[in-house]
Amino acid sequence: MSLGNSISLLLAVLCIANASAADSPKPVIVCSTTQVADFARQVVGDRMIVKSVLAAGQDPHLYEKKPGDAQLVSTADLCLENGWHLEGNDWMRKLAEQSGRPLVTCADGCKPLEVPGVEQAMHDPHAWFSCTNAATYVRNIRDAVAEVDPDHAEEYRSRAALYLDELRALNTWILREINKIPVEQRVLVTSHDAFNYFCQAYGMKAATPVGWSTGNEIGAGITPERRQQTVDSIRQHHVKAIFVETSVNPTMVREIAREAHVEIGGELYSDSMGAEGTAGETYIGMMRENVITIVQALR
Ligand SMILES: [Zn+2]
């Protein structure tokens, strides 16, 4: 064999070795919601493949499982759900159980707010809307991925620590921004009760015509009383603007705006983040855009 041929052979062997290292399958995480998927990406970087069942703009309460979902979940090394019945009829839990894949409920460990349930009060599932709770989601994910891939646990802890710092900074910024709204104007009127944690954490009062879910669960859905209370609340507080949500049909909020003679202040990300390439495509981006929209409309 000539020297040239030997070098070619060596290069070919090196290429094959490299390709097999790159091809070694990465663990797969399948998430129910876009928020949970973003938290997971922040923690695992490129070490794992993160997929989300829901696409941007889809409503987790009303989601109907698609034929491909069971196949997607069956490929997961780890499944992540928001939990607390955000996923209507617990569709993510059912998918994970049917495939026998491990499932972590990211909201577990957050301090819950209560909403009406079937026999007793239950936890309001929209816990990610306070940065403190978002940090709990991130810690749950950090611990879960470290178990799936203990060799890189230190790396996951480092990424999580940096991201937790970013969440703390975001929290401080939101408090400062909301303080620009006159106290009596700090009323947040949206379609459904997604913003209870946000309002509690950042000193606002929530008013919505629809309860904790856009679906037909107990304590959810629109009633004439709730709708009237929302209109009364707008008039009583002289609310300047109310908001539609990106994942909920805006018709009712528009009707209420006309009836109460109030403006639509813009569109808020609620149960879903923005599409790829938009300012709301990450959790931090979504929170920032919401706060800017709210403050612009109400200050
Ligand atoms: Zn919701």
UniProtKB/TrEMBL annotation:
Residues of the signal sequence?
1-21
Q: Which domain of life is it from?
A: Bacteria
Coiled coil ranges = none
Q: What organism is listed for this UniProt entry? A: Blastopirellula marina
Q: Does the keyword Transmembrane apply?
A: no
GO CC terms for this protein? Answer: cell envelope
What Gene Ontology molecular-function terms does this entry list? metal ion binding
Q: Sorted alphabetically, which keywords does the UniProt record give?
A: Metal-binding, Signal, Transport
Alphabetically, which GO biological process terms does the record hold?
cell adhesion; metal ion transport
Q: Which family does it belong to?
A: Belongs to the bacterial solute-binding protein 9 family.
Q: Where in the cell is it found?
A: Cell envelope
Check the record and name the InterPro entries matching this protein: AdhesinB, Bact_metal-bind_prot9, Lipoprotein_PsaA-like, ZnuA-like
Q: Which Pfam families match?
A: ZnuA (PF01297)
Mind telling me what this protein is named? ABC transporter substrate-binding protein
